[in-house]
Design a protein that fits this description.
The chain is built from 2 helices and 2 strands. By secondary structure, it is mainly α. The chain has a single domain (about 1-60, about 75-100), classed as Helix Hairpins (Orthogonal Bundle). α1 runs antiparallel to α2 (about 60-105). The longest helix has about 45 residues, at about 60-105.
Length: about 110
């Protein structure tokens, strides 16, 4: 029984680590998106977009709209990951507390 709880805690810990890595990747993508939006706002020059190996001229309003949509998607992904992280953290703490309680009862 104790072995099962330890194994469950290890799995939860690995899942938490995975969520943290995903959150970090989304946060980096969000930073890049916000930076691009800021540059578009500050620039009066033409705007270009990379598509595959090509760089194409795009209307400023269209690219701003695309980046704003990307920002919304990233935000919703981050919110989902934060909810998962919180749920898993609670499960981890519960499993840890049960294991501690069990080991104290054995003494």
């Amino acid at each position: 029984m104790e072995k099962d709880k330890i194994q469950k805690m290890q799995i939860l810990q690995e899942n938490l680590q995975s969520i943290l890595m995903q959150k970090q990747a989304f946060q980096m993508e969000m930073d890049e998106t916000l930076s691009a939006l800021k540059e578009i706002e500050n620039s009066k020059d033409d705007v270009y977009k990379l598509v595959g190996q090509l760089m194409i001229k795009v209307k400023r309003e269209k690219i701003k709209e695309e980046l704003a949509n990307k920002q919304k998607i990233i935000n919703s992904s981050l919110e989902r990951l934060e909810a998962e992280e919180e749920k898993m953290s609670i499960e981890f703490k519960k499993a840890r507390d049960e294991l501690i309680k069990e080991s104290k009862n054995k003494k």
